[in-house]
Amino acid sequence: MKPVNFDYARPADVGAALALLADDSLSVKLMAGGQSLGPMLNMRLVQPDLLVDITGIEELKRVEDRANEIVLGACITHADIEDLRVPDVTCGALPSVARGIAYRAVRNRGTMGGSLTHADPSADWLSILSTLGAKVTLRGRSGGRTIPVEDYMLGALEADLRPGEMLVSITVPKLSRSARWGYYKSCRKTGEFAHAIGAFLVDPDRGVSRAVIGATESRPIVIAEATHLVGDGKAERLDLAFDSHAAGAAIEAAGMADPIDRQTHVVALRRAIERAHTA
Amino acid sequence: MTEQGVGASLLRKEDDRLLRGRGQFVGDIRLAGMKDVAFVRSPLAHAKVGEIRIPDSCRGQVFTAADLEGVKPIVAVSGLAGFKVSEQPILAFEKVRQVGELIAMCVGDTRAKAEDVAACVEVDLDELPAVHDMIKAREAASALVHEHWGDNVFLETFVDVGIEAAFDAPIKVSREISTARQSMAPMEGRGTVAYWDSRMEQLVLYTGSQMPHIVRTGLAECLGLDHAQIRIISPDVGGGFGYKGILLPEDVCLGWLAMRCGHPLRWIEDRREHLTAGANCREHHYRITAYADRDGKLRGIDCEATVDSGAYSSYPFSACLEAAQVASILPGPYDFPAYRCRTWSVATNKCPILPYRGVARTGVCYALELILDAVAREAGLEPHEVRLKNLVKPEQMPFDNITKKHFDSGDYPEALERALAAMDLKAIRERQKHPEPDGRLIGIGHSIYCEQAAHGTSVYSGWGIPMVPGHEQATARVTPDGGLELRVGVHSHGQSMETTLAQVAHEILGIDIAKIKLVHGDTEYTPYSTGSWGSRCAVMAGGAVATASREIAGLAKRIGAHLLQADPNDVEVAHGKVVGPTGSVTFEEIAHTWYLRPQDLPMSVDPRGLESTIGFKPVRDSGTFSYAAHVALVAVDPEIGDIEILDYVIVEDGGKLINPMVVDGQIYGGLAQGIGTALYEEMNFDASGQPLASTFADYLLPGPTEVPAPRVDHMETLSPYTEFGVKGIGEGGAIAPPAAIGNAVNDALRPYGAELLRSPMTPRRVLEAICAASKEKSAEAEREEAA
Ligand SMILES: Cc1cc2nc3c(=O)[nH]c(=O)nc-3n(C[C@H](O)[C@H](O)[C@H](O)COP(=O)(O)OP(=O)(O)OC[C@H]3O[C@@H](n4cnc5c(N)ncnc54)[C@H](O)[C@@H]3O)c2cc1C
């Protein structure tokens, strides 16, 4: 299991990376942390002519703290979030989820942008960032666009990345002090990919009530108006409002046919709610 | 016991290099001009092989079956009556019978380049229906793995010891119990480096092997070479567990080409090859019935066992090692009067099944111990009550059981009672009456086994495998500076023999451990041996080292007595010296005299000097029977299906322990593997015979966070037949955990009436069992209502 012979470039800015991507005569692959791409290269599932390492691009490591949101460069690592090298605006949600991704060695290198683009249905960032209502910003030579995280994923291992485009940043809204969130990941051993994820956010001050069921066969199931599942966030105990039949129906409607899978995902969401965290 | 002798928990001599990353494994070997090999492997489980097209640009770098003129396939014949012989091709011709089977060998300056070459080779394959289910494979309509056999059965065996007498028992419990196929996962995979040494006229082949001499014998057969023309070097071995006892077609390929190509060759197995094409093991299926009286006394066991042997009989252990053993070891440590067992070793289009630590015993223990718990539930008894009713008692020892196994010594009930006492069964039963705050269910389960180990000629000659162990030999040699060199034909793949065998020699000669060096892992330097397998090294190589050391003691005493001007009958060996009535002389002085100052010795001196090669066999070679009771406390999450091991107790008896710390290490490692079998490891295949796990992301192994620190207690009942009373314990740790954990899970699920009868016990299987039980319950309620 050794990769095919390829060339390697490490551009210093996004423009240079985009210029390299634009060469139609070559098969070009971006590499961030290499934690997912590395094995795929070794197994020759990916056989690029040119590998563009984007971890030398300063802009992609940058953090921009705005009034209502924070913008994270695509190459921010899981460990950057875990260790709070990046300010937390999510009442602890992102650092807490970061700690449960893989093992420390993977977190040291793996990036948020890489994880979202790899689009593994079990990935943690995908579920929690769609819960928080985060967006990704993509840039190509002809300009940029910003779309919700959940729309960026088209299907298993497939991101909405057009030819010549790259992901440059992730924008996460700041939660208000009244916000409550919960995340439950069911996996068979420490550091393993999830086989069910439940996540929710209620932020009464911002009028947000969202629930996400992740680690499905494909895209996470995002319930953007989830007051029927998790309430509006004003009640003391959120889990009392939880309607497992409604959750099961939502999951079934999204196409999950296997009853045991459905049960596991409903339980994951309920446990996320039982473990509601506040600021 | 001395500070360094038998019984001392000495730190391991080998750790200095291993823990500093300075070990030398096959993958560390660099030879000038060495090229790498990659293989074209079959992507299909069962297919006719048509044309193989090699582009001109790769000519001379690709070799197929057509090139291997005169090379014989790998054949491992069992002498058991009715065994059907398979021929494992070195490179496929005519047909491939498993995914991953070798089709062509490709050479490149680096592994990546060799893989580039492999990617250019085109093979026409005409797919045939795959045989993937060992039960269906026995049906007449099944496709055939080896057409000329007429069916898919390597071997069928049958024993019946008066089973009819059990049929009127008041309790009859039947279950279908099975263990998944696994892929054993030593940290280091397989690997081979080969070159032709033109000075020695020898093929030198480095391969991480548990049994270098057997590899040489097998390779000599395939390549048509004299033994003297082959040297096998097994350097440091990063775990073997059985996988490194096997002669692989890859070894033969590299050996063949190395004799012709003029440069060294290397093949290092990667993890995908390892998982999908290599190290498969463990797939057992049982239909088992227990007959018992109401008080739990067993009246008989009736069983049909099937083992999925895969496509070929692998060398040297053969395709029927597992199934044929099942029949003889199923009765476990129990005494009951009636028994019947039929077994099938079935060929399928999967990798050959290989012996894995605990060979056959892990599946047997799982089946027997689960059915005993089912008996207990049926009889309304505690599981341990049923066991205590049936375990062989200490006063019966030595005991010949229903399949004529000769249990040498031990107190099985004591082991079980100690283990349960450590867990406080009563308190747990009390705790189970109240719901847990987190909604999980608590369960306690146990299992007990005895393990025949280090059995020898009389046992294996009856099995007819190609290698029957006889006397195990060791060489002991005092060096001119008074150190001791030990040479043995077994090889350490993690057993710490550099330390433990030195302890054995120290016990007898008193030479400082630091000055005792073990030479092993090289056919050129060591006496012939069947190698490290069957938990035999401590007993057999330990016995041989003890015997050779005693010879050395005798030789040294005579020289020492002469130097001391004493009668040889008046001197003894102690603390690395020969001690006489009036003084002592060190081994260093004795050795110096023999080697470098012979003028100080009389003409009558024993010309053997200070060196001895001698063989050892225990007083009886029917094997030692170590045993252990394992108790697990688990919490089962009935909503998600997760299982957590809360506590784990092991009470084990390995006779005299040469180094208790090393024994603990063996137990910990075995336990981790047993937990893998119980909860995580599963090598699934689809209906076309495709393996569904090709990385460790799909093939789950327990990690440090999944393996609890067990509480281990030792009993030391000596074996009457071995040196020091030692028993083999190398495999035991991996035998009992699936059964103990399985019984604990079933205990936890009692409120649901659910039962899990297949390993690994995954979250999905837990939920399915609960689901099935609740369906069964409502169906029953409906039936009652209707009535
Ligand atoms: C043992 C192990 C366990 C793991 N467990 C978990 C887990 O529990 N939970 C979890 O969520 N993840 C897990 N992962 C995945 C891990 O989080 C990876 O780091 C992540 O999926 C990919 O990030 P990366 O930066 O390494 O991306 P890379 O591997 O470098 O790239 C992945 C893909 O994204 C593309 N890409 C990368 N950056 C960009 C960009 N800025 N713009 C466009 N395309 C880009 C690449 O071309 C490639 O196709 C695990 C990984 C391993 C090896």
Automatic annotation (TrEMBL), chain A:
One GO MF term attached to the UniProt entry: FAD binding
Domain called FAD-binding PCMH-type: residue spans: 1-177
UniProt-recorded name of the protein: Carbon monoxide dehydrogenase
Record's keyword terms, sorted: FAD, Flavoprotein, Oxidoreductase
Keyword Flavoprotein among record annotations: yes
Highest taxon, organism lineage: Bacteria
Regions annotated as coiled coil: none
Regions crossing the membrane: none
Automatic annotation (TrEMBL), chain B:
A GO molecular function held by the record: oxidoreductase activity
Keywords for the protein's UniProt record, in alphabetical order: Molybdenum, Oxidoreductase
InterPro entries recorded: Ald_Oxase/Xan_DH_a/b (IPR000674), Ald_Oxase/Xan_DH_a/b_sf (IPR036856), Ald_Oxase/xanthine_DH-like (IPR016208), AldOxase/xan_DH_MoCoBD1 (IPR008274), AldOxase/xan_DH_MoCoBD2 (IPR046867), AldOxase/xan_DH_Mopterin-bd_sf (IPR037165)
Protein name per Swiss-Prot or TrEMBL: Xanthine dehydrogenase family protein molybdopterin-binding subunit
Organism of this sequence: Borborobacter arsenicus
Gene3D superfamilies: Aldehyde oxidase/xanthine dehydrogenase, a/b hammerhead, Aldehyde oxidase/xanthine dehydrogenase, molybdopterin binding domain
Aldehyde oxidase/xanthine dehydrogenase a/b hammerhead domain residues: 20-129
A Pfam cross-reference name: Ald_Xan_dh_C
